[in-house]
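thought: user wants a sequence for this fold. calling inverse folding tool.
action: design(structure=
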């Protein structure tokens, strides 16, 4: 049994935006899954859905099996316990997530007192251990958030996420607000904690390079769907889906000066999730779209060993007559 098994997850916001569509994914203990995609592709919605943190009125269907139990059908009391002890989220921008008027030790202690039913002395001891675990002196428990640097605050957020010993950490752009040096330190810290404690990790980022460096597997999302999935370094180095290729080409590579000076962006924007294009939702931006892509939306299918992509061009499914149409379009574009 996987630590987390998400099956056919669909999320539609009250206004009709289909932010997550038919997502399947799984994470085992000790496994690090990266979720990549441009802004608006549904990554944060997916993270929030996993712990039922979406606004009231949002329609969610499918299954979210955490340790075999479906989070979507749990009673609220159980969901609240699962949020700390089963899986917890580290958000970007720790300053906004921490309460400015409380000492950080008290903030970390709160879930321990509430969900672990610890005594005040037991919670204090655990807070000291957690701070040391994330590389902060235990005495920093007495500090207020504004007395810490951005990197230290993000370490506090990680300590807080670990407070009730969850099996899964969901890190949503955990280093986006930090400078490059601190970003690297925080990423190494997360990696180390995950491997020391055999945790599962879902790391969300628009930055494919960061994800390929940190994670074992990578899922690329576009318009609410996973369009490509496989071992992280392979997806980054040799994406199969045209969107994965474009996303990967947008990042300069070490040792490849050409890519450094000419990273290729992808023209256009992801579609409005309340008015999605027909067929493959990527077809309006796709440089190799076929006529059939306007009407057909391919399922994820085997692209190579242990890799899958949702594109008519993978798995030998391309119709040669249709390919002529694509060629004509790309030469006139
Ligand atoms: N509360 C909401 N109500 C309606 N639509 C929403 C809501 N939150 C997000 N959306 C829409 O759902 C889509 C997916 O948003 P989401 O924030 O999940 O994407 P993302 O990939 O995480 O982007 P970013 O990296 O910018 O956070 C977007 O089109 C967004 O406008």
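)
observation: tool returned 333 residues.
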């Amino acid at each position: 049994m996987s630590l987390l098994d998400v099956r056919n997850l669909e999320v539609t916001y009250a206004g009709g935006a289909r932010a997550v569509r038919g997502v399947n994914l799984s994470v085992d203990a000790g496994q690090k899954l990266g979720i990549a995609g441009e802004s608006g592709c549904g990554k944060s919605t997916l993270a929030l859905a996993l712990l039922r943190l979406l606004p009231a009125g949002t329609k969610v269907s499918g299954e979210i099996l955490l340790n075999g139990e479906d989070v979507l059908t749990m009673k609220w009391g159980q969901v609240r316990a699962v949020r700390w002890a089963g899986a917890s989220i580290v958000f970007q921008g720790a300053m906004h997530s921490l309460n400015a008027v409380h000492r950080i030790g008290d903030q970390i202690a709160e879930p321990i007192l509430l969900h672990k039913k610890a005594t005040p002395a037991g919670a204090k001891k655990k807070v000291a251990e957690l701070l040391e675990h994330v590389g902060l002196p235990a005495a920093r428990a007495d500090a207020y958030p504004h007395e810490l640097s951005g990197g230290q605050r993000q370490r506090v957020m990680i300590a807080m996420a670990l407070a009730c010993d969850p099996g899964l950490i969901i890190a949503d752009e955990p280093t986006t607000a930090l400078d490059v040096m601190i970003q690297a330190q925080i990423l190494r810290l997360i990696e180390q904690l995950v491997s020391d404690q055999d945790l599962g990790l879902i790391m969300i980022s628009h930055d494919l390079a960061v994800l390929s460096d940190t994670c074992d597997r990578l899922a690329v999302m576009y318009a609410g769907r996973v369009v490509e999935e496989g071992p992280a370094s392979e997806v980054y180095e040799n994406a199969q889906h045209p969107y994965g290729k474009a996303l990967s080409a947008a990042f300069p590579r070490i040792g490849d000066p050409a890519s450094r000076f000419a990273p290729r962006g992808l023209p256009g924007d992801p579609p409005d999730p309340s008015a999605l294009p027909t067929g493959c939702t990527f077809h309006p931006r796709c440089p190799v779209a076929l006529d059939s892509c306007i009407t057909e939306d391919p399922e994820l299918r085997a692209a190579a060993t242990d890799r899958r992509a949702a594109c008519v061009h993978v798995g030998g499914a391309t119709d040669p007559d249709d390919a002529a149409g694509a060629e004509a379009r790309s030469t006139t574009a």
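thought: summarizing for user.
answer: Here is the designed sequence. The first helix runs from residue 43 to 50.
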